[in-house]
Amino acid sequence: MRRYKAVVGVLLAVIATFLVSCGSGPAAVAPTYTPEKIAQLSNYVGRLESKRDRLPELLNYIEKDNWVNVDNFTHGPLGQLRAELLRLSNQLLPVDQPKAKALSEEILGHLQSLDEASQDRNYGVALSQYREFLGDFDALLDIVPEGARASAEEEETPDVYEMTSTFDEPEAIRAEPEDMVRTPVMLDEDVLQD
Ligand code: ZN
Fold first, then answer.
1. What integer is the mean pLDDT of 95-119?
2. What CATH number belongs to 35-191?
3. 102 CA to middle of ligand 1, Å?
4. What are the CA-CA distances from residue 140 to residues 79, 83, 103 (Å)?
5. pLDDT tops 70 at residue 194
6. What secondary structure does DSSP assign to 49-92, as a single string?
7. For the chain, which terminus, N or C, has the lower number of CB atoms within 10 Å?
8. What global pTM score does this model have?
9. Cα(1) to centroid(ligand 1), Å
10. Local structure of residue 30 (DSSP, 8 states)
11. Treating both helix axes as pointing N-terminal to C-terminal, what angle do 67-75 and 97-119 enclose, rounded to 10 degrees?
12. Residue 187 CA, ligand 1 centroid: distance in Å
């Protein structure tokens, strides 16, 4: 019994030494967003922000039961979203990545559900999924460091599209030619690992 205790004591001492040496190495310095990192991030963020700015178009199509344009929008302007979200998440600090990746999955899940609701011409589900999608999209952009956000100031202004979208203007907003380029919403995960 005494011998056993001695062995346990030595083991504990070894483990304690190991833990202390792990915790105080140069790797323990917390990484921060350097100016270079911010500049790099702003490329990815800018692409996502320009999509965010166009989302009221999508809402407009949903509200008008224009399912063809909803479909064109989710597969056109939003067709590369999975890849873009992944690139952004990978550029964030390790401490921010889990939340960014969880939100990315939320965003893509709502987009998928919106796409399915659109196939079913289900206005109620499409609208609620759009709102969830938008909420998670904004939550993701909120994780991004302030300096990497180009249109942070613009976001404070009221949303003109959103305000006008309730009026009856069937011809007001048309799909742009690029919207007609079809790409699948969900791309294979492993294609995008980089
Ligand atoms: Zn969600």
1. 97
2. 1.20.120.290
3. 9
4. 18, 15, 6
5. no
6. HHHHHHHHHHHHHHHTT-HHHHHHHHHTTTTTHHHHHHHHHHHS
7. N
8. 0.65
9. 57
10. P
11. 150
12. 19
